[in-house]
Amino acid sequence: MKIEAKYDVIIAGGGLSGLSLAWYLAKGNYKGEVLVTDSTFAPTNDKTWCFWSNKEPPFRDVIYKKWKKTWVSVLDYSTFRYLNEYSYYCIRSGDFREYVLRELKKHKNFDLLEDNILDFSSNQSKAVMLTKGGDSYIANYIFQSIMKPKDLDRSQIKYPLIQHFLGWEIKTYEPAFDPETFTIMDFDNEFEPGVGFMYVLPYTQSKALLEFTVFSEDVLKKKKYKKKIKHYLLHELGLDKDHYEIRRKEYGEIPMEDRPHVPYYDKNIINLGSVGGQTKPSTGYTFTRIQDYTQKLAQNLIQGFEPLPPQQSKLKYRYYDLLLLHILSNSTNDSLRVFRSLFKKNNFDDIFRFLGEDTNLRQDLKIMSSVPYIPFFKAIWKNL
Ligand SMILES: Cc1cc2nc3c(=O)[nH]c(=O)nc-3n(C[C@H](O)[C@H](O)[C@H](O)COP(=O)(O)OP(=O)(O)OC[C@H]3O[C@@H](n4cnc5c(N)ncnc54)[C@H](O)[C@@H]3O)c2cc1C
């Protein structure tokens, strides 16, 4: 027999955004009936989420590692830099999932459903989720993080960039890392097309995640990322394959495109997370934006209001993103020069504040005046 169950809220997709929303609702004592659905709730550490914060970080209990010092290298500029006001944190997706599910199971008004979601539909007053088993679930609102927005007009995207990366979590047989210093960007100055760099998260002296990351329109063949990681291990850290073992691999593609804002999938169905366009286009960082939005959304629902759709960034930040996307899409050399000046002439607290969209005009001008102006003039000309 086909089920037809009714809820106040359905959260379709139990990844970062879906479970963050569920967490804030549960912790805020939301009284409505909630269904959280995912194809599987198995807690796999397939994603390592990092973010910076100058406040009490979210999900403090499952923070895997925190850093206050970073290494950056671009063209002829390489240096250690300290973070003062901000810290850089990482959370593993499996730890996060396990932690949130443990909390949800304490709340009788939260149901968990493991099933594949096939489709959604809605009318003026209700939204419906259809699963592979043929069951339908009805709710006042569905918050979905699994399907790309239906009305997304891809022809409006000017810079279809992707941040793509392959990472190896390795264990070395001898101490090889400084666990206090993460490498935010160690650029491969010869890489083309696009911008390529190594990102290194050292957890202990002998355990680290190393990711070869690229900003470009097309992903690489897997063997190309592997070759880059091996090369880095050998030439930067002096580690050949007899000095380490690979414990885990992590692959990701994060959209960095300047896509149109599409907050609704359909009437009463709101887009969340990556498919909801919550990634900051010029950086690929999404974690903090998801937290900010799901926290506000949960408060809204708890207070009995209509759900607040995701808001766009302020116009000035969208414009800055567009300029940077233009440079990243058009010239590797200009991109490297911009990163070089950005890192050389600013402290990391100011850079994080700017990328976190928390600056005033004076702070914006300080950052803007620190980078070479010709690439930006070209970008402005093309994006008037
Ligand atoms: C490997 C990786 C690392 C990242 N690292 C960072 C980082 O360091 N910092 C940062 O800010 N951002 C990072 N991101 C970007 C972003 O924060 C993550 O992608 C984040 O997981 C997005 O959350 P989400 O809820 O949109 O999607 P997800 O977390 O992917 O959640 C979607 C959920 O929907 C489920 N699902 C999908 N289809 C169906 C279906 N048909 N039926 C049922 N369930 C379904 C999936 O199983 C999944 O659990 C990373 C992305 C990747 C891929």
UniProtKB/TrEMBL annotation:
Give the Pfam families listed for this entry.
Lycopene_cycl
- Which keywords has UniProt assigned to this entry? Membrane, Transmembrane, Transmembrane helix
Task: List residues traversing the bilayer.
Answer: 7-26
Keyword Transmembrane helix attached: yes
Q: Which organism is it from?
A: Gracilimonas sediminicola
Tell me what this protein is called.
Lycopene cyclase family protein
Transmembrane helix as UniProt keyword: yes
